[in-house]
C-alpha cells in the first residue's frame, strides 16, 4: 500500500514544470516548493513532468536537480525521479561496486526476490542502456573473485538463474502443489543444504507462487523457513545461507524484513543514509504503509519519529513527505 498522497484535483504537468523551474532558478533553490510538488506526484505524473520540463526549457530535469541540490536531499530526490527500472539498475550497479561482499549479495537478494521476470528483464535492459555493460557480466565479475570461491559460485548461480528463469506470472499454485513443493524444500534444508537444488527451487517459480510455497511450509512445519537459514548460516556456508534467508524473508513477510532494515539504518550513532533512502524511495509507492505498521508494532516507535530524530532540514522534510502521516 502506497504512502504517497497525490492531489485530488487533476495534475497539470505544465504548471508543475514551471513551478519547479522557478524553484530551481538562481543561486538559492526553493526546497519547500520542490518537495511540495515532487513528493506528492506518483510515478506516471513525475514522468510527465520530466517530459514537459524538457520540452519547455530544453533541459534534463534530473541533470538540473543533480547540479542544484546537495548531499542526501539530492540523492533522495534524484532516486525518486528515476524510472523504476532505471532506479533498480542504478541500485544494482552501486551494490555490485560495493567494497563489502555481503552488501552486494544482500541488496541483490532484496531486488531479485521481489521482482517478476518481466521486471528483471526491464531492469537488465535499463542497466545495459545506462552502463553499456551486461548485468549478468557484472554480477559474474563482482561475485567471482573471492577467497570463498564455492560460496560465491552458488550466490552467482542464484542471481544468474533469476535473470534467465522462465516467465510463470499468470498461474497461481494449487494448495496441494504448494504443499508438495514445501515438502521438497523441507528435505533440501533439513540436513546438509544442496545448494544447486535449492537455487533451482528458488528460481523456478514467480515470487507470488513461491510465497504460496513458503506459507505452506510454515503451516506444515510450524516455523518460518528463514529461521532454518539463520541457524545454517552459523554452521557453514554463511554468506550463501544469509543471502537465501533474506530472499525467504522478503517473500514471506517483506514488511517485517524491511522494517528491520530501516531500524538498523537509524539505530545507534550515525545513520546509514544510503539504505534509508533506498528503502523509503523504492517502497513509497508500493508497500511502505505496511512497512510502517510493522515498524511501529515491532519497535514501539513510529518510522516518522525515528526519521525526525535522525535526519535534518529539507532531507528530513522530503523523507517524511514520502513516508506520510502517522495513522
From TrEMBL:
<comment type="similarity">
    <text>Belongs to the annexin family.</text>
</comment>
<dbReference type="GO" id="GO:0006950">
    <property type="term" value="P:response to stress"/>
</dbReference>
<protein>
    <recommendedName>
        <fullName>Annexin</fullName>
    </recommendedName>
</protein>
<dbReference type="GO" id="GO:0001786">
    <property type="term" value="F:phosphatidylserine binding"/>
</dbReference>
<dbReference type="GO" id="GO:0005737">
    <property type="term" value="C:cytoplasm"/>
</dbReference>
<dbReference type="GO" id="GO:0005544">
    <property type="term" value="F:calcium-dependent phospholipid binding"/>
</dbReference>
<dbReference type="InterPro" id="IPR001464">
    <property type="entry name" value="Annexin"/>
</dbReference>
<dbReference type="InterPro" id="IPR037104">
    <property type="entry name" value="Annexin_sf"/>
</dbReference>
<dbReference type="Pfam" id="PF00191">
    <property type="entry name" value="Annexin"/>
</dbReference>
<keyword id="KW-0677">Repeat</keyword>
<keyword id="KW-0041">Annexin</keyword>
<dbReference type="GO" id="GO:0005509">
    <property type="term" value="F:calcium ion binding"/>
</dbReference>
<dbReference type="InterPro" id="IPR018502">
    <property type="entry name" value="Annexin_repeat"/>
</dbReference>
<dbReference type="GO" id="GO:0005886">
    <property type="term" value="C:plasma membrane"/>
</dbReference>
Amino acid at each position: 500500500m502506497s504512502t504517497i498522497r497525490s492531489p485530488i484535483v487533476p495534475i497539470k504537468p505544465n504548471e508543475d514544470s514551471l513551478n519547479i523551474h522557478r524553484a530551481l532558478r538562481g543561486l538559492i533553490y526553493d526546497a519547500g516548493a520542490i518537495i511540495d510538488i515532487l513528493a506528492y506526484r506518483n510515478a506516471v505524473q513525475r514522468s510527465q513532468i520530466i517530459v514537459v520540463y524538457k520540452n519547455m526549457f530544453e533541459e534534463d530535469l534530473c541533470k538540473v536537480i543533480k547540479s542544484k541540490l546537495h548531499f542526501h536531499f539530492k540523492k533522495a530526490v534524484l532516486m525518486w525521479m528515476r524510472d523504476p527500472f532505471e532506479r533498480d539498475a542504478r541500485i544494482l550497479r552501486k551494490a555490485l561496486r560495493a567494497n563489502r561482499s555481503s552488501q552486494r549479495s544482500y541488496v541483490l537478494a532484496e531486488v531479485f526476490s521481489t521482482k517478476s521476470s518481466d521486471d528483471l528483464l526491464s531492469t537488465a535492459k535499463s542497466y545495459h542502456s545506462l552502463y553499456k555493460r551486461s548485468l549478468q557480466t557484472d554480477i559474474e565479475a563482482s561475485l567471482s573473485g573471492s577467497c570463498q570461491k564455492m560460496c560465491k559460485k552458488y550466490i552467482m548461480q542464484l542471481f544468474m538463474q533469476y535473470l534467465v528463469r522462465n516467465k510463470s506470472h499468470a498461474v497461481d499454485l494449487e494448495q496441494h502443489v504448494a504443499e508438495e513443493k514445501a515438502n521438497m524444500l523441507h528435505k533440501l534444508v533439513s540436513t546438509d543444504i544442496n545448494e544447486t537444488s535449492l537455487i533451482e527451487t528458488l528460481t523456478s517459480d514467480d515470487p507470488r507462487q513461491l510465497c504460496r510455497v513458503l506459507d505452506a511450509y510454515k503451516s506444515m512445519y510450524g516455523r518460518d523457513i528463514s529461521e532454518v537459514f539463520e541457524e545454517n548460516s552459523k554452521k557453514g556456508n554463511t554468506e550463501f545461507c544469509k543471502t537465501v534467508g533474506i530472499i525467504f524473508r522478503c517473500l514471506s513477510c517483506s514488511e517485517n524484513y524491511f522494517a528491520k532494515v530501516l531500524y538498523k539504518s537509524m539505530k545507534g550513532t550515525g545513520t546509514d543514509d544510503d539504505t534509508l533512502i533506498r528503502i523509503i524511495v523504492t517502497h513509497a509507492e508500493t508497500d511502505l504503509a505496511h512497512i510502517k505498521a510493522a515498524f511501529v508494532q515491532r519497535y514501539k516507535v513510529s518510522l516518522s519519529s525515528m526519521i525526525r530524530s535522525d535526519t535534518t532540514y529539507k532531507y528530513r522534510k522530503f523523507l517524511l513527505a514520502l513516508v506520510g502521516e502517522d495513522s
